């Protein structure tokens, strides 16, 4: 895997090859990663893995025609062939009036921002093994845990570089440390499975492996002997580890690409009040040590903290350059790039701001409700906002969390759900989308 500076140089060289092959404009992305992980089960080493990968992706434009191609062979001969093939492909592609690089005047020109994404710590395989064993041992020590699917510890490093033919060049690297444990409680048909997991840019920001293991064991045991729910309308409280998915559905519908295709349940709602007054949802790509922080977007544009929802109101769409051209707007710095192809739209370090009530206070007036800790399936219609997911969790009886429940469905419409959404004050900061405990009124439960 290349260093950020060398990766940037390699991407720049590919741009030069594309221009020589006849491209009017181009951008190139280098992505490289290395990872090492240790997996244990029942107190014994089960697997040690190490992997490395690197890839260069090239997008070229010939007039309004474009093509994308990539290679993991970074030799000079392979990249010359890559550039020539990309230009030939673009000449044969149909015209797209919205195709093109990002506006040059919006490119990120400031000095690099230090987001503290790289950790110098280099845990040895023995260190990773010790952490994995400690996490699993703590989980297995919880009374009621009967089996284990394993504990793991990992370290990953990543480098990303982007160069465009119209003046942008940037690169950055980052690390990720992880610990997890997955265990089973109970016996026979009554077995229940759950996990504990945490990831952080810096090793020092991870909880102790024993804490992760204890969490996994406690969660599995709490799920034993689940009951069933009767069908009907109930208030639903979403645990922070699943509540973030609701905010993810919102941002997916805010994508300018979805709006341009008229395939979003938020059509004609720009600026509308969707949430209760006081509700704030923030996208912050410049958060130090954030799991998805980045100094620039996938087209080389500047990124910034932005309130996507302010005082309950939508503040506009999330647009890459193509969507902005279609909608007659300005790209918002939310372009993301995967392996090959054109940019998409995504967020970074998204969070729903905390409310004022504790989770206990949030539930105190619920005589009969459900606390959801797991969501199953993908029953969300991005065009209509209709929502239906399998779930499990716990009953709420007279304001208190009671026994476990399983095999039920929660359903509603996202517009209605957002209108009654209330956040608690227990915001957590260790996921891609960070949310506190969330209460939603009047959802339909399908159980017995």
From TrEMBL:
GO terms for biological process: proteolysis. PANTHER family: METALLOPROTEASE PMBA (PTHR43421). Residues 26-90 form the Metalloprotease TldD/E N-terminal domain. It comes from Novosphingobium ginsenosidimutans. This is TldD/PmbA family protein. Transmembrane segments: none annotated. Residues 119-224 form the Metalloprotease TldD/E central domain. One of its GO terms (molecular function) is metallopeptidase activity. It comes from the Bacteria. Residues 232-447 form the Metalloprotease TldD/E C-terminal domain. GO terms for cellular component: cytosol. Belongs to the peptidase U62 family.
């Amino acid at each position: 895997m290349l260093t950020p500076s060398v990766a940037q140089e390699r991407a720049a060289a590919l741009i030069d090859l594309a221009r020589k092959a006849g491209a009017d404009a181009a951008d190139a992305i280098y992505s490289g990663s290395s990872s090492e992980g240790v997996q244990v089960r029942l107190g014994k080493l089960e697997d040690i893995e190490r992997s490395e990968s690197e890839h260069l992706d090239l997008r070229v434009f010939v007039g309004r025609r474009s093509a994308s191609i990539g290679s993991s062979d970074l030799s000079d001969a392979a990249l010359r062939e890559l550039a020539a093939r990309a230009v030939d492909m673009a000449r044969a592609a149909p015209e797209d009036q919205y195709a093109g690089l990002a506006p040059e005047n919006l490119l990120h020109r400031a000095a690099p921002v230090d987001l503290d994404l790289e950790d110098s710590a280099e845990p040895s395989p023995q260190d990773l093994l010790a952490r994995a064993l400690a996490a699993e041992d703590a989980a297995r020590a919880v009374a009621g845990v009967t089996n284990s699917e394993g504990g793991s510890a990992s370290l990953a490093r990543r480098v990303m570089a982007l160069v465009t033919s119209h003046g942008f060049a940037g690169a950055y690297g980052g690390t990720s440390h992880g610990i997890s444990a997955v265990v089973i409680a109970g016996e026979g048909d009554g077995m229940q499975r759950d996990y504990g997991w945490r990831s952080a840019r810096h090793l020092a920001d991870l909880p102790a492996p024993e804490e992760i293991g204890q969490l996994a064991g406690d969660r599995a045991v709490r799920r034993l002997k689940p009951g069933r729910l009767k069908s009907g309308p109930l208030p639903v409280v979403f645990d922070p580890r699943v509540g973030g998915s609701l905010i993810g559905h919102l941002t997916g519908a805010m994508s300018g690409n979805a709006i341009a295709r008229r395939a979003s349940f938020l059509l004609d709602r720009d600026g509308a009040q969707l949430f209760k007054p006081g509700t704030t949802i923030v996208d912050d790509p410049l958060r130090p040590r954030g799991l998805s922080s980045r100094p620039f977007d996938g087209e080389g544009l500047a990124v910034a903290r932005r309130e996507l929802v302010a005082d309950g109101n939508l503040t506009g769409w999330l647009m890459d350059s193509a969507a902005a051209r279609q909608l007659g707007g300005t790209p918002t710095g939310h372009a993301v790039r995967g392996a090959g192809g054109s940019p998409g739209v995504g967020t970074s370090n998204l969070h729903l701001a905390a409310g004022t009530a504790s989770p206990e206070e949030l539930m105190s007036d619920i005589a009969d409700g459900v606390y959801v800790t797991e969501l199953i399936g993908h029953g969300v219609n991005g065009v209509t906002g209709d929502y239906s997911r399998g779930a499990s969790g716990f009953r709420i009886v007279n304001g208190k969390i009671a026994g476990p429940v399983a095999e039920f469905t929660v359903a509603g419409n996202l517009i209605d759900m957002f209108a009654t959404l209330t956040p608690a004050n227990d915001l957590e900061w260790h996921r891609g989308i960070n949310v506190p405990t969330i209460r939603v009124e009047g959802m339909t439960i399908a159980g017995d």
